[in-house]
Backbone:
């Protein structure tokens, strides 16, 4: 069996009586690219924050590369790259300054830092804007800077929340191609509302609704009842029967 890189074990997150995530369990082996789907408010972002240790679980466990996020978060962070939706960037910094700062936080110095920056600038195609203020960049370029920050330490696991949200078609194509290339040697979990991206990039689909996992299977299994992914999405959000 392939090494498990992302694991959720009966994860729960409660805010008072509201159940944002309830008994979420799944595992993702090394080298798999997985789409995390569901309607707005389904609990996707909350689940990603639980998996990355950004927030703590009310119950259950999250593991990254075998590390328990409650007990070994710093160790897990060494192998994890996280791109939240609308990730924080310093608008007065340039990509050069931001990547240097992020790399140093990650413990990179000297030649290792320079090599890491060169690598992510190439992967994310940032050369053209390398010394421009981030606050003056297009949303597409800002998203690429955020991705470069997540990749600076060459993590084995990537978790990305809506990486193409708000981008134009050309920007979406660029980010999608980047993710496809990264998926050749990394384990990736990404949320998206663009169902065509699921077919283009992903090996597997996790679908949640109202904080619960209701589908876990391949893209082909996801489509089996209807060739139109939009219709499948609609059917799953209006039928609470668990499919696996």
Residues:
């Amino acid at each position: 069996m392939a090494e498990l890189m992302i694991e959720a074990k009966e994860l729960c997150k409660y805010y008072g009586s509201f159940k944002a995530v309830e008994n979420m369990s799944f595992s993702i082996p090394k080298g798999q690219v997985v789409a995390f789907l569901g309607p707005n408010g389904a609990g996707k972002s909350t689940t990603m924050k639980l998996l990355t240790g950004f927030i703590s679980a009310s119950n259950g466990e999250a593991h990254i590369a075998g590390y328990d996020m409650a007990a070994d978060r710093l160790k897990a962070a060494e192998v994890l790259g996280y791109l939240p939706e609308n990730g924080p960037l310093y608008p007065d910094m340039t990509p050069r300054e931001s990547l240097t700062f992020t790399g140093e936080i990650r413990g990179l110095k000297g030649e290792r830092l320079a090599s890491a920056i060169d690598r992510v600038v190439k992967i994310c195609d940032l050369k053209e804007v390398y010394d421009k203020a981030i606050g003056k960049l297009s949303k597409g370029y800002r998203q690429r800077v955020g991705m470069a920050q997540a990749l600076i330490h060459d993590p084995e696991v990537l978790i990305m929340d809506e990486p193409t949200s708000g981008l134009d078609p050309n920007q979406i194509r660029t980010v999608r191609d980047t993710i496809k290339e990264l998926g050749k040697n990394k384990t990736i979990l990404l949320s998206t509302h663009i169902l065509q991206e699921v077919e283009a990039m992903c090996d597997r689909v996790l679908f949640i609704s109202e904080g619960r996992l209701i589908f876990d299977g391949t893209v082909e299994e996801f489509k089996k009842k209807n060739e139109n992914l939009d219709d499948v999405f609609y059917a799953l959000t209006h039928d609470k029967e668990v499919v696996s």
